[in-house]
Amino acid sequence: MQLLLAILSGVLFAAGVFLILRRSLMRLVLGLIFIGHAANLVIFTAGGLKGAAPAIVAEGARQLEQPYADPLPQALILTAIVISFGLFAFFLVLIKRTYQASGLDDLDELDGRKG
Amino acid sequence: MQFLTIILLLFAVAAAAPVVVRFTRDWSGWLLALFPAGLFVWGITRLPDVAAAPLLERVAWIPSLGVSLSFRFDGLSALFFLLITGIGALVVIYAGGYLKGAPRLGRFHAFLFLFMAAMLGLVLSDNLIALFVFWELTSITSFLLIGYNHESVESRRSALQALLVTGAGGLALLAGLILIAAAAGGTFEFSELLQRAEQVHASPLYTPALFLVLLGAFTKSAQAPFHFWLPGAMAAPAPVSAYLHSATMVKAGVYLLARMTPLLGGSAEWHYLVTFAGAATMLVGALMAFAQTDLKRLLAYSTVSALGMLVLLIGIGTDLAAKAMLVFLVVHSLYKGALFMVAGSVDHEAGTRDVRRLGGLLRVLPFTGAAAILAALSMTGFPPLLGFIGKELMYEAKLQAPAAALLLLASGVLANAANIAVALIVGIRPFLAARERRPAGVHEGGIAFWIGPLLMGSMGLLFGLFPDVLGEVLIEPAAAAVRATQLDVDLALWHGVNLVFLLSVFTVVLGVLLFALRRLARRFAGRVRWPALLTPTGLYHGAVGSLPGAAAATTRLMQNGSLRSYLVTVIVAVLILLARALLSLPAFPVEWTLEGVALYEYGLVLLIIAATVLVLVARTRLVAVAGLGVIGFGVSLIFIFYSAPDLAITQILVETLTVIIFVLVVARLPQLRKRSSFFTRLRDGTIALASGAVVTALALLAAEVQFRPSISGFFAENSLAQGFGRNVVNVILVDFRALDTLGEITVIAVAAFGVYALLKLRRTEDEIPDDLSASDEGKEEST
Fold first, then answer.
1. Where are the domains of chain A?
2. pLDDT at B764
3. Looking at the domain A2-55+64-111, which fold is it?
4. Quick one: DSSP state of residue B402?
5. Which of the residues A28, A59, A68, A82 would you substitute to probe the B interface, choosing the one with the greatest number of B C-beta atoms within 10 Å?
């Protein structure tokens, strides 16, 4: 499964890179979300995959017993998910405002290059 | 610490100079001159010690880099030390008279003393890096001195030209010095390098090091084709020219070559490069000088010629040549310093430097005139002046040169003859002949104006009459330092009528002949127009002139304002670096196995990939958002399968919100459409696929790499005991790493404020009347 997830991260990252290189602002947002997913999956995969062993101390135990899924990458990813959601929300509103103000959703046209 | 103290003292004097000038006004020159004069006397008292062995001193500066402020006071350093302080004292006195009442005299003296300190540091340094630092300091301070009249465009331009040429050479020198140290096994101390000269010669780094060091020395000492900055630097006030172009700045390159002779000299490359550069410069300078009419330009080009002679003698590389070089160094410093001051005085009094408008000045400028005549006679090499001994030695050295002796001798005679003509034009004719051209109202400007030139001129006579003193006390230890062996220097005025003497006589005759033909030469030089790009000056101006254009082109290329081209640059650069690291691995340390993957897992991954493709090809906004939702929920499922319930919960929540917000906002955005050309899409697709491949490889590799022991065990053990929580991920976030979470919450809060502010902004603009609607306004701004 590790290989499969690695490939999936690669696919998501490639799609993200392709999208952020587009002229449409909307696609730029989509690309950022893709890259976020890819990064999360890379961290998740790199932390080692363990099925059915959440990092929760069992009732009555003093501490986590082996086997357990590594809690550290999960904590990192949790932060990343929330932060990228904040980024996404702000960016989306920014695009909306830009479009409202200029009638443009095209990076090149916003630069005054074309159109 | 004595040498460091001397240099620091001069820096302190530089700092104090403006105050001294403010309080002592007209006497400031005399007062400030006490410092270099005192150092001169101190230097003389140290000479007996130097004759025995060089004085060494080391003060740690940057020990970790092998850079120290170490000083070496041997014969060569002592000779330069005395020239710099001795002529320095006279220049300071002269400047006090010449710039009397000038509004920036204080600043001028500050620059002058800074320069003097840098120059002394340069000739005293034993550490190559310290030497380089002082070398660059002389470039910078000479920039300040040459550009003293900063209101004048000409002055600023020539200061910049001198700085750029010598600064570029300085960079080459730094590279060369580092290569020398590398070739010798890491030391920057000259005293230690001297023991390893053979090792340096044998190293493959020798040739590049030699080229770079020579480049530094040639630019500094105005060797052809870098000679053009020196005549340009004539825009400086006369005291600056008298100092920089007689004994100091331009001699720094000569000093470096002499200093490096025991270390780098002796090879065929050294011999041919140095000799050729010197010979070419000697001829170019002499012939160009001869056709000038401006006193200072005449002197400037003849300085170029003299520098060529010195370099040529270093290139010949025999004991006799070293002796001749050192004697001529003293000769030239004395007469050139004197003549530059004389030229300044004449300019100051008569208001012109054009030799065609000067004459009969001896009667009105008796002391200056006497100084000029003494210096000019020394320059022509007339007995019994020191210049005569210098020239005889030079001819002798060329006669005994190991190769091309006749050629060197012939070019030497020609250059000397041209210099004799220059000496007659500058030092003799304005004072003795053509009285009817004497400008009106000329009179001596005071003792400060003539004491310096007269002293230097008399020194030429004195040393000519008693050459033994000079030879034994100064030249012998200096020659020992250049040749790295004890030499016996026996100077004498009269050698009898021999070949060299006949050559001297012939040179003088030829010089007088050239003097008579000077008008013809001027007319000829006035007619010849070189194509601009064939002259060094033209090349320099072309290069400097093209800089703004090149900078603009680079900026257009690198900073074109397009976000996407920046992204492409960043992504491709990172890709190349990562790919290089990945490809350099001997074997990929991960097994490519899909064993044990359940069918539903295949299905899930394929579903996400299909949704990704859907987003990529989507033409309507809603399809794209739907695809995005599928991906988000698919990733949540992966989190669930692999024991990350908290991640899954958060992801589902965020994904739901994302899709809702998207749908709400997207309705107001235009539909997606194809906008890029096929080529652009192909390029971006290639970059995207390559980055995806690298990320896949990294994800696989990262699982195998563990640089530090994992800290997860700590959390697992202490979650309940210290954090009082059973869900370890939660305890990490709200307890162990609570500050991080606080930061995260802050970010979200800031983003929320931003969203709120942007949405609120819209509401106020809605109240604006329709004909001034927001979109029209924005369109105007964007065009």
1. 2-55+64-111
2. 52
3. Helix Hairpins (1.10.287)
4. S
5. A82
